[in-house]
C-alpha cells in the first residue's frame, strides 16, 4: 500500500477526533491528537505539515503544507490529489493567502500593502538577503 493511502486510511479512521478538536477543553489532549496527526503525516513525508480548522459547526479544513519549501510542493499536491472524499472535510493543498494580514511589532503595524522588498546580494555568500521598506518608519 502506498504511503499516501496509509495516511488517508488512518485519517478516515480517526477523522471524528479531529472534527471535534475545537470542543476539547484539555490542552494536553489537543496536543496529543495534533502530535499524532503530525506523526502520521510525517510517515508520508517528514517535510509536510498541516493546519486544522473551520467553523465549529461546519465543514472542517485539513490544509496540507510544505511551509513554503518548494522542493516539497509535489508531495503536497500528490497527497491532496489522492485524498478520499470525506463528508465533513475540505482537504486543501497549501495555506490560502490571508486577506488583510497585518502584524504589530514593537508598536509598529506591518501591513504588506504598505511595504515593499528588494533583494540583497553578497559576493561572500550564495544566499540572498532581503531589505524591507515600511511606510512612515525611520
Topology of helices and strands:
Elements: H1 3-19, H2 27-44, E1 49-54, E2 60-65, H3 73-81, E3 89-93, E4 103-105, E5 108-110, E6 115-121, E7 128-134
Parallel strand pairs: 2-3
Antiparallel strand pairs: 1-2, 4-5, 6-7
Helix pairs in contact: 1-2
Helix content: 25-40%
Structural class: alpha+beta
Q: How many domains, in number, for the residues?
A: 2
Q: What is the radius of gyration?
A: 19 Å
Low-pLDDT windows of residues: none
Strand order of the largest sheet: 1-2-3
Molecular shape = globular
Beta-strand percent range: 25-35%
The beta-strand count equals 7
The end-to-end span amounts to: 58 Å
Q: Please state the average pLDDT score.
A: 90
The arrangement of helices and strands along the chain is HHEEHEEEEE
Biggest sheet architecture: 3 strands, mixed
Count of alpha/pi helices:
3
